[in-house]
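During the no-cost extension, the postdoctoral fellow (Dr. R.K.) reprocessed legacy sequence entries with the updated structure-token encoder. One reprocessed record is reproduced below for audit purposes.
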Amino acid sequence: MTGSRLKGRSTLILVAAAFLGPFVLALILFKTDSSLIPSTTTEHGVLIVPPRALPKLAMTPDAQSGLLRGKWSLLYIGPAECGDPCRQSLLETRQVRRALGKEMGRVQRIFFITQGQPDESSLNREHPDMIVFDLQQQSGKELLEAVGDVSEGDILLLDPLGNLMMRYASGTGMKGMHEDLKRLLKISQIG
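Re-encoded structure tokens follow.
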């Protein structure tokens, strides 16, 4: 009888260890600075923590209402005279959006112009699905202040609630941007 009791207790202890062991190990890893915890992240852009809410823009009657709301947005900010970094960034946003396939409708591309007058016929011909908005008015200045410093060629990612989430530096490449956006669209319940 003693042997079966010992066997029963050892089975109970093994079952309890199997159940509680992972929780105890996770708690130890969480509380200590362990080399087992990865130090790198999987995103290719620079995550903005905490995300910054951008102000709503004062829209003209013919412009879309809620421009920064409802869809994920790939945003480029720069002068109307589009140099090589600008053209490369706009091309990459177009290709990344198209590469999303059936999810393409959940993403919009926006070009915010900070100075000068755009060549609208050229932009419409090369980027027919891109929204172009002139920030040279008061609401645009508020938006630029909320965004902060942007280098030429940088692409910003906004969530469907109008929060600035990520910055892709010039030269990041569309493959990394595509992987990040694909992952976000897969797990996102909004937009």
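The chain has two domains: 1-39, 46-187. The domain at 46-187 is CATH 3.40.30.10 (Glutaredoxin). The remaining legacy entries will be reprocessed before the final report is submitted.
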